[in-house]
Protein: Glycoside hydrolase family 3 protein
Organism: Oceanispirochaeta crateris
Amino acid sequence: MNRDLLKKAGKMFVAGFDGMTAGEHTKFCSKELCIGNWILFIRNVDSPRQLKELNSELSSLTLENNGLAPFITIDQEGGIVSRLHGEMNLYPGAMACSAAGKGHTARTARIMAGHLKKMGFNMNLAPVADINCNPRNPIVGPRSFGETPEIVSEQILEFCEATLTEGIIPVVKHFPGHGDTEVDSHLALPSLPFSRKELEQREMVPFIRAIEEDVPAIMVAHMLIPSLDDSGLPSSLSKKIIQQLLRESLGFKGLVLTDCLEMQGVQASLKTEEAVKKAVTAGADLLFISHRAEEQEKGVKVLYDEMISGRIPESRIDESIRRMELYQKKYCGPTKTPATRTSAWSGEDIRALRETSRKSLTVLKSGGSFKQSFLKDNPRFLILHLRRPEQFIGENTVSGGDPVAILEKAYPKACYLKIKPEELEEGMAPPRVKTEEWDRILLVCSDLFRQPRALKFAQSLLHTTTPCMVAVMRTPYEAGAFSRADTLVLCYEDTVAAYTSLSEYLQDDFEASGICPVTIPGLE
């Protein structure tokens, strides 16, 4: 086997693995496949010190076996997509930052990037540049900065500038725009039915602005877009979309990344080998195979074979490697672009992130005395928590305890009732809640619009004489179903930080000032 060609093939891939150290899977990828780059997930994360040691080991392995410092990346958007968990998960997400007001996106991005740099990362798969203009979008929601091209463009540019300042490469995603779909590309292949002109006037605007500002990297989504390519190929594998549109028409000169090739948006119709060949031919620079060693082996070997046979010219791979080297020399390795921050999770950083979370909390409707009842020494109130089901592959789960425990600790005399919406959907009888026994009801919910029976049960609580406050913990569109609530607030994410802000708001620690960045159907 030609080791030099194998190294070139390996440089095109970003691999994920299990475990919190560089174990057998990682060493196989590095030594046998010459994998050049790495992605970490929540399964790889324990502590800042552990991450720094792991990333140092990944760098050493890659330098030894492939000759270049690797891109080491992570999906650290903040909010509901945060691979840094437990006490590390302090960062508000995109929509929360947007709701908090001017300057909060830049400050949050800079703090987050500084922390990532200190732990040995050099690339972050953020920001999300998708315009969330479809209330039923199952994958974007509060990961988006808003519903208009102007808001999203402004916020992603702030995010990118702040991230680069700390020596981290931001990756703008998911080109050409995933905001107006109703299918999760982790589970199936979404389709965008719009004309190219319509896409250029809305979905693509943030990406065009990012290209004008020379952002270093863009991730391409797995979507069918017949107006751009009628071949039936996902956008991530389409030469018409990557080479002709993104590179030639829009003039993008940076790195093109695929979303993970193990997602069902690709795997439902193509095997890994075919997806790799098509992605490279289309012009992608970095191909993500984020989970299974056998798929990573298939990917590297098929690309190596294609190069040996000449079906994919070596010169095509060299183009991508030249682009990689430009950014690797600047951002990768222990001495390149050090973070300006001297310590992670300093008191100053924590206070700034907490301020953004508090300022994001949005009151859509205020019931006057409702909030004051929470200040009494012994109120009779029920806190009803409708827990959401898991929604998409690879999503972070809250680690380090249940966030609703924050409310339990703040109000130990309240009665708590926790319900899993999927249990109601499976035919379980809804619990009998005697609303007349309570002075107040606090309903805490997340994404109930995906669970019709649970939503109907929640709405039934509003048709009583007992005042009810609804706290919407994820997508703000859900608030439209609760217009009858006495008090209605948006938190944008069901994280420890958001629950803490909600608890502090109820204790009258601050006045909420957040402004919702999307229009909510159903609200007057």
In short: The chain is about 40% helix and 10% strand. The longest helix spans residues 48-66.
